[in-house]
């Protein structure tokens, strides 16, 4: 079996004859196929094991079994118009604390212009 025979076996012959697959694009297509197989494997693994256990297993594989989670939260906006961004970061901080992430492993960057605004009535206007 040659590579061309395998392509004929798995794909339509018209696809090759219409010059839709060239030499360079064959390798890209094969790479995309491998990535799709890995994605399908990951989805099946998440369904079987569960999302949180899957993330823990991936962290153990990558980190060598040590779980040292660091979190970096950033609210990139300021003012009452974008209050929701700061509220989201504050909510994420509380959620992380409630799920057992220690305070010394959470880094938060956000402005305090809404909490300590000298003109809080601006929210109405």
From TrEMBL:
The keyword Endoplasmic reticulum does not apply. Gene3D superfamilies: 3.40.50.1460. InterPro entries: Peptidase_C13 (IPR001096). One of its GO terms (molecular function) is cysteine-type endopeptidase activity. Signal peptide: none annotated. The chain crosses the membrane at residues 26-48. One of its GO terms (biological process) is vacuolar protein processing. It comes from the Eukaryota. Pfam families: Peptidase_C13. Belongs to the peptidase C13 family. This is Legumain. It comes from Schizaphis graminum (Green bug aphid).
């Amino acid at each position: 079996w040659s590579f061309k025979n395998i392509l004929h076996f798995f794909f339509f012959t018209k696809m090759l004859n219409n010059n839709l697959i060239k030499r360079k694009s064959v390798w890209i297509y094969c790479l995309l196929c491998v990535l799709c197989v890995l994605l399908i494997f990951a989805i099946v693994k998440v369904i079987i094991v569960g999302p949180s256990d899957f993330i823990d297993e991936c962290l153990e594989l990558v980190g060598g079994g040590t779980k040292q989670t660091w979190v970096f939260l950033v609210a990139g906006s300021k003012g009452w118009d974008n209050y929701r961004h700061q509220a989201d970061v504050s909510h994420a901080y509380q959620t992380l604390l409630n799920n057992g992430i220690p305070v010394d492993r959470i880094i938060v960057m956000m402005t305090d212009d809404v909490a300590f605004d000298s003109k809080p009535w601006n929210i109405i206007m």
